[in-house]
Every structure is written in structure tokens, then in C-alpha cells.
Design brief:
The chain is an alpha+beta fold and 243 residues long. It contains ten helices and eight strands. Helices cover 42% and strands 23% of the residues.
Length: 243
């Protein structure tokens, strides 16, 4: 589960703020959604390393009535309702969404959320299509809470996963959500060569450009992907579908 490991690392290695002014809002929202929309609502405290679950009436459809907490940021009982391929697809969508919003100021992140179509093994092994919505709640520059809502899939919903702007109502499928133009053809070429283990000098020789130009492209890549080093940039580019 390569996507899971990278997502887990990015969420847990954040520089969290010492205060928690948004905590009550996150739990109050999830509790209300479970009551009003009958969804299963999960609040994952990324700093505290735990999750709280509010089981609305839909929990009865997927066999999650007696589910209230986890000593993990991952909702293990919910994940157990999906096969391995479905879990990996879920983690890939969440990883792409995380990288998508990490590139924007914290104040703008609240405008976006993830929607995904999942398939659960419901009661008596009956397959159930589920709509998954996920919101990240920032605290300073870090993401403190992830709020996930699981409910019935509306008729006609065909998208596998997408980013939704809650202000404008626009929706972009995640594989194409503003990522294709992040790096130029040359930058993608250089990043692939870096990933294969090529040095700056060998990349310059292969592409017929100067080492200084290679270094400049590398710095542009790190800046655009908000990566600390080339290895992280490569992982991010793969998760975003750029490479």
C-alpha cells in the first residue's frame, strides 16, 4: 500500500500548532451531519492520533452501528468493508487531494473537499455503493482534522473521485485537477531522470544543457510541488498523476 504509507507520513509529520481552537467545530459538525443526513461521520485528530465516529442511520446499511472511536487516524472498521484494491483507490484519491490543497494558502483550503465513489461489502456480503466526502480542517499552517462522511451514493453519480469547490460549485476529476500544467515537459523529463538516479552532470550531458540549467529546473520543481527534496517531489508528482 504505497499510497497509504505516503499519505500517513505526510499527515503525521506536520508541524502542528500547540493550540486547538477549531476542535469543537470539527466534532460538532460531524455530529450534526450524522443526525441530519444519516451518514457515518468520522473526525480524525491528526495531531492526537485518534478518531471519533458518529453513526447515523446509514450505519445500519453497512453494518457499523456500534462504532464510536478508534485509537488511530484511520477508520479501520470502515476500511475492512473494502477489498484491497478499493482501499488503495481510496488512499490514492486522498493523497492526491492532500497534495492538491497543500499548494494553496491555509485560508483557501476550507473552500475545497473531496468526493469519491466507493464500494463496501455491506450486510450479508451485499455490495453497497457509498459516497465519501472528506474535508481537511486547518489549524494555522497545518491540517489538524480530517472529517469524512459516508452515505448512500446518489443516482447518476459516475465520477470516481473529484475535488469540489464549495464556493463556486465547480468539480474537477482528481486525475486532472489542475495538475497537468504544474511542470513543463522539460521539468518532468528531468524529474524522471533524477528518479532513475542520474546526477546533475549526467542529466546535463544527456539533455545537452548546462548543469546550472538542470539545477534551476530542479529548484523550480521543488517550489511548484512544495517538496523538500527530489525524492519527495518524485513521490508527489506520481501521486498527482503528473508522471
Amino acid at each position: 500500500m504505497k499510497c497509504f504509507r505516503e499519505l500517513d507520513r505526510l499527515l503525521k509529520e506536520q508541524d502542528f500548532s500547540p493550540v486547538s481552537p477549531v476542535e469543537s467545530d470539527a466534532f460538532a459538525y460531524a455530529r450534526a451531519m450524522a443526525q441530519v443526513e444519516n451518514v457515518v461521520a468520522v473526525v480524525s485528530d491528526l495531531r492526537g492520533g485518534s478518531s471519533r465516529i458518529y453513526a447515523g442511520a446509514f450505519a445500519g446499511v453497512i453494518g457499523l452501528e456500534d462504532y464510536s472511536e478508534e485509537s488511530s487516524i484511520w477508520e479501520k472498521k470502515i476500511l475492512s468493508k473494502m477489498n484491497a484494491a478499493e482501499q488503495e483507490e481510496k488512499f490514492l484519491a486522498e493523497l492526491r487531494f492532500l497534495n492538491y490543497i497543500r499548494r494553496m494558502p491555509a485560508r483557501r483550503r476550507r473552500n475545497y473537499y473531496l468526493v469519491s465513489r466507493l464500494r463496501f461489502n455491506g450486510r450479508a456480503g451485499v455490495a453497497t455503493d457509498v459516497l465519501h466526502r472528506m474535508y481537511y480542517i486547518s489549524e494555522g499552517d497545518s491540517i489538524r482534522f480530517a472529517v469524512c462522511l459516508y452515505g448512500p451514493l446518489p443516482p447518476g453519480f459516475k465520477v470516481r473521485s473529484a475535488v469540489v469547490n464549495s464556493v463556486t460549485g465547480t468539480m474537477e476529476e482528481l486525475g486532472n485537477a489542475g495538475n497537468s500544467d504544474m511542470l513543463s515537459r522539460r521539468e518532468r523529463q528531468i524529474l524522471l531522470l533524477i528518479g532513475s538516479g542520474s546526477t546533475t552532470a549526467s542529466i546535463a550531458a544527456e539533455l545537452g544543457i548546462s548543469p546550472h540549467t538542470v539545477s534551476r529546473h530542479r529548484q523550480n520543481i521543488l517550489s511548484r510541488l512544495r517538496a523538500k527534496n527530489s525524492h519527495e517531489a518524485l513521490r508527489t508528482a506520481v501521486s498527482l498523476g503528473i508522471l
